[in-house]
Amino acid sequence: MSDNFSAEVSSRICQHMNEDHSSAVGIYVQAFGGLMEATSAKMLAIDSQGMDLMAQVSGEDVPVRINFDHELKDSEDAHQTLIAMVKQARVKSK
């Protein structure tokens, strides 16, 4: 994990995403993880290169690593990137 993504920063982002944006986390595993059959997902960790998620598929936990299209600079870059990814996934699904 880069210095910009300490365990505390990763934990804070994951907690926020899981509590306030769980549907977005599900969209990430479906659109970028290729698990269209996932019924739910949880963000486990985030770093400057990507995010680690756990998806539920047919009642089983499936780990998913999604790499970003660029190296994130800081938590604000993470915020903007995660928003852009949800928008991109929603456009693809139409």
UniProtKB/TrEMBL annotation:
It holds the Pfam family DUF2470. Residues 10-85 form the DUF2470 domain. It comes from the Bacteria. InterPro entries: DUF2470, Haem_oxidase_HugZ-like_sf. This is Heme iron utilization protein.
